[in-house]
From TrEMBL:
<keyword id="KW-0560">Oxidoreductase</keyword>
<dbReference type="GO" id="GO:0042602">
    <property type="term" value="F:riboflavin reductase (NADPH) activity"/>
</dbReference>
<protein>
    <submittedName>
        <fullName>Flavin reductase family protein</fullName>
    </submittedName>
</protein>
<dbReference type="GO" id="GO:0006208">
    <property type="term" value="P:pyrimidine nucleobase catabolic process"/>
</dbReference>
<dbReference type="Pfam" id="PF01613">
    <property type="entry name" value="Flavin_Reduct"/>
</dbReference>
<feature type="domain" description="Flavin reductase like">
    <location>
        <begin position="10"/>
        <end position="150"/>
    </location>
</feature>
<dbReference type="InterPro" id="IPR012349">
    <property type="entry name" value="Split_barrel_FMN-bd"/>
</dbReference>
<dbReference type="GO" id="GO:0010181">
    <property type="term" value="F:FMN binding"/>
</dbReference>
<dbReference type="InterPro" id="IPR002563">
    <property type="entry name" value="Flavin_Rdtase-like_dom"/>
</dbReference>
<dbReference type="InterPro" id="IPR050268">
    <property type="entry name" value="NADH-dep_flavin_reductase"/>
</dbReference>
Length: 156
């Protein structure tokens, strides 16, 4: 099977966009990711998948905690900044929630302590036990077929 065909097929699945954040030795680290999902309600668990070449992999292993910032439709620049597509002139200011750096004005923030990790192919799946949740009322930022997208109401 062709790698490009597989990537294009997986990229056709519309997802939300998140920035995973953590702090190690007083330094904040962040990475854009769309490989995020809810795992369990009791106990409350989520999962993020991080590539083996990503610097964030080691940061999460070391910090043993992380936050998932679910982005709004107004946070395209934040997504691009943490995916390396953009180098903003102004420094991003973080808030703190449950002892972790988080992006202000996110649609939702989920803080976690590291529950477990599993190597799967060229990624590590981190399972996080949820320690806190913040929720705002905004429209989500979506990503599909290599482009940022927004929700549109369907006519019934």
């Amino acid at each position: 099977m062709d790698d490009r065909l597989f990537r294009n097929a997986m990229g056709s699945f519309a997802t939300g966009v998140t920035v995973i954040t953590t702090e190690v030795s007083g330094e904040v680290h962040g990475m854009t990711a769309n490989a995020f999902m809810s795992i369990s309600l009791n106990p409350k668990l989520i999962a993020v998948s991080i590539g083996e070449r990503a610097r964030m992999l080691q940061h999460i292993k070391e910090a043993k905690q992380f936050a998932v910032n679910i982005l709004t439709s107004n946070q395209v620049n934040e997504s691009k900044q943490f995916s390396g597509q953009l180098n903003l002139e102004e420094e991003i200011t973080f808030s703190t929630f449950k002892g972790l750096p988080v992006l202000p004005n996110s649609l939702a923030v989920v803080t976690c302590k590291l529950h477990s990790e599993y190597v799967a192919g060229d990624h590590t799946i981190f399972i996080g036990q949820v320690t806190g949740v913040q929720l705002e009322q905004h429209d989500p930022l979506l990503y599909s077929q290599g482009k940022y997208r927004e929700l549109k109401e369907l006519q019934e």
